[in-house]
UniProtKB/TrEMBL annotation:
Keyword Cytoplasm: no
Lyase keyword on record: no
Keywords: Hydrolase, Signal
Boundaries of every Peptidase S33 tripeptidyl aminopeptidase-like C-terminal domain copy: 397-496
InterPro entries assigned to the protein according to its UniProt record, in alphabetical order: AB_hydrolase_1, AB_hydrolase_fold, Pept_S33_TAP-like_C, Serine_prot/Carboxylest_S33
Organism: Actinomadura meridiana
Domain AB hydrolase-1: 91-260
Superkingdom of origin: Bacteria
Name recorded for this polypeptide: Alpha/beta hydrolase
Family: Belongs to the peptidase S33 family.
Amino acid sequence: MVATVMVSVAPSSTAAAPKAGDLDRFYHQRLDWKACTLGPDDQVGKELDAAGARCADVTVPLDYSKPDGRTIKVAISRLKASGKAPRLGMMLLNGGGPGPALDMPPYMRQLMGPAGPRYDLVGMDPRSLGRSAGVDCGWNVGTWIKGAGPNRRSFRRAARFAKDLADRCARTNRSVLPHISTRNIARDMDVIRGALGERMMSYNGASYGTYLGAVYATMFPGRLDRVVLDSSVAPDIWGPRLIAPAVDANEEALAAWAGWAAEHDDKYGLGDSKAKVLKLVHHIIAVSAKRPLEIGQYRLDATLVPVFLLDNISTDEEPARAALAESVRLMREAAAGRPVQPSPDLAAELEFLTAATREDGAGGSGQAAIICGDVAAPRDPAVYWRDVQKHRAEAPIFGAVGYDIGPCAYWPTRPVEPPTKINIDLPALMVAATGDTRTTYESNKTLHGLLHGSKMITLDAYVHAPYQRGYPNNCILDRVNDYLVTGRLPADDLTCAPEM
């Protein structure tokens, strides 16, 4: 059944809910569709235009409790349904992060197989990101996620780094930050649905996008048709300390990679046993704690080497494992004091980690704005130091990353609304991997239990977001795409075996 369209936002215990009529002009606005390319260096826009997509800006209130006040523009792209098969409606896409998603429709159309051409695929840059009133705090770093390092002195440096980032946001964006949150992004989504003339929409979200989708479904019940949630975030772990629950999963995934590297010792020479490879990794980190590793023009210290490893164990696909083995080989040379030059791919990642472009810094600013705007972080640095020390033994590589202090500890504003309580009827199709290093399998199972009527497909693999990633597993791809065409969920939860 199609729910009656309403134009009021869900009531909040801390922010007054506007009356339905207050938002009519946003829900019924006329969109100006245009080419997506903004300039000669706009690669995203060029790819969207080449695929036949069009772009528009949707006007939304900055503060939904004051709909007659200041407004912002939320950028969307749309790749309209094509072909002779009947159209199945509109599908909004989110790839996680939080990060921009304007670029997603052409990629997702290919991934969705026969279902792809039957939807109007809509990408959205969430508020504070990309083209949607992007928050730029002037951060000159690619990532705001760092490790605490080996000792209290390195932890204090991490704390100063986090405070400096937060202070920059306070100086440049204080008036906007209170209105950056997942709940407001969900409200923006519903305005987009209304402005596109859709009574209901489908949704396909991965990682953070699963939390966003669950928040939207809670705030706006009955407005979602077919829903795919890929690698889900449990509501109780979403927030500034999101990485902490996953540190054990990352240690396990790194050990699995070390076993793979040992099997390929003839090629990479990292050690002929899992234990020897892991010993080498620990040695590299120990050296980087004394002096930064020099890899070409880049410098990696003990606060960044674990972050690099974290970034590179999100899948067990052979090319990714091989790339990490080659990078560790180069790090071993650098740890020995020998001159090394990075490969082009490694150089691009080291550039991101150590010396951001303006776009990288802005993206990190907007991402932090959402996370810090959703859930308050502990303010006392001693809490973080204590937790780092507590977890060094059981998570010797990633504990100092997952439990380290970040800019949310010094954020200039506090969340305006409490986190959304999720416990609803939502017959979504969920995809999960047992070895997920970002949203653990336990996290997936938790959200599954809160979305009554949902079904979950489990893949026994080390991978994050297997469906949206295009992980080579036909069992996953075929079942998700069949659901998107037919709307029929499996009768029971399913398990897909590895196919590599």
